[in-house]
Design goal:
Elements lengths: L1 H22 L5 H16 E16 L5 E16 L4 E8 L4 E9 L6 E8 L21 H9 L9 E11 L4 E8 L14 E11 L2 E9 L1 E3 L15 E14 L14 E11 L2 E15 L2 E11 L7 E14 L2 E12 L1 H7 L3 E11 L1
Length: about 375
């Protein structure tokens, strides 16, 4: 009896399954297309982003102190692997309401890649590094920020430009090269002087986790305003804008993108210089991050910049702080900076001051 019942159950189950398959309407062409594109987008498109906000208190040796809660940046990024050879990237910054990066890359091999569009210029070792990784809340050193576009004459504090880039990795990643031609001006605008800036970078890894970097720029820029730092150039004038940089970065071990679990001691230093018209500038910085307990790091930076070597516009920032990695690229930061200025710089930026900053960084 039990055997007969089991056979009957199997027959009924098989029959019901066959009936369901024959009576269910076939998927339409539209349904198949939707499933295909949904799967294709999910496999080829990656959406990421981050936001940084915190508190800043500025305490000058003389004068009025200020403090504020502030939003540093809020960024959304979309990366698309169109084909194995073609890659597209978009980056929008919501605080400034700017489309900061948008480019298309052709990647036939690791040794040779071509990028067309707007992205971070490859002058200096630090400029291409994401603010989500840099030690300072600032976030970058004075020299990098200034020479990559923060100078009021250039008016491009994002450190990005529109142009054509050729880059690649040689000898199993031991050599990285970049050749770049850009407008040499403010982002999201046309070239004002019809002259292009040429940028070259060479990075060498003689041993694992140690990198040497050298980069330079030759070109022109048309001043978007006057500047107290460089009175040899006036608004609307086209002037020479040349730069050089050299530095190194050492890590105690290789790391991935999970900075919560996979951390190490890092040390990065660079010297930088530039000539804008008749004005020479020079800077040097050293930054370090040292893990001390689970997700907790000690961070420090010594940062010197002479914005005009003829006029002695010198400023030294000494920073020390802590950062705690909550999860992957999410962290809490707190730091103290003492800013020491020359008399000539005090006339422009005010007296020496202490700066206390905290920041929360959320990334996905």
């Amino acid at each position: 009896m039990r055997k007969s019942f089991s056979i009957l159950a199997v027959i009924l189950l098989t029959a019901s399954t066959l009936w369901a398959k024959t009576t269910r309407p076939p998927e339409t062409t539209e349904e198949n297309d939707l499933k295909y594109w949904t799967k294709a987008v999910a496999s080829r498109v990656k959406v990421t982003g981050y936001a940084q906000a915190g508190y800043t208190a500025t305490i000058p040796e003389e004068g009025k102190s200020t403090n504020t809660f502030d939003m540093k940046r809020a960024v959304l990024m979309v990366a698309a692997n169109i084909t194995p050879e073609f890659y597209a990237f978009f980056m929008h910054e919501f605080k400034t309401k700017d489309m900061q990066e948008y480019y298309l890359e052709y990647r036939p091999s690791k040794e040779f890649r071509i990028r067309f569009g707007q992205s971070k210029i490859e002058y200096s070792m630090e400029n291409p590094i994401s603010p989500t990784v840099l030690e300072s809340i600032g976030p970058m050193s004075q020299g990098v920020g200034w020479l990559c576009g923060g100078d009021p004459l250039t008016g491009n504090p994002s450190g990005r430009d529109m142009g054509l880039m050729i880059y690649g990795d040689l000898i199993k990643g031991k050599i990285h090269y970049v050749l770049e031609a850009v407008n040499g001006g403010t982002i999201n605008t046309s070239d004002r002087d019809n002259k292009k800036n040429l940028i070259a970078k060479l990075e060498i890894k003689p041993v694992p986790n140690f990198k040497l970097s050298a980069s330079g720029q030759l070109g022109y820029c048309t001043a978007v305003t006057n500047s107290l730092y460089n009175t040899s150039v006036v608004e609307g004038q086209t002037y020479k804008q040349n730069r050089y940089a050299a530095g190194f970065e050492w890590k105690s071990k290789a790391t991935g993108n999970d900075y919560h679990k996979n951390r190490c001691v890092t040390l990065r230093s660079e010297i930088l210089g530039g000539k804008d018209g008749d004005c020479n500038s020079f800077g040097i910085y050293a930054a370090t991050s040292i893990p001390v307990y689970k997700g907790l790091d000690i961070v420090a930076m010594a940062d010197y910049m002479n914005y005009n070597t003829d006029n002695g516009l010198k400023k030294t920032n000494l920073m020390a702080g802590l950062q705690y990695w909550i999860f992957k690229k999410c962290r809490l930061q707190a730091q103290y900076t003492y800013s020491l200025r020359s008399d000539a710089m005090k006339a422009i930026q005010g007296n020496n001051q202490s700066i206390i900053q905290t920041q929360i960084q959320v990334a996905f």
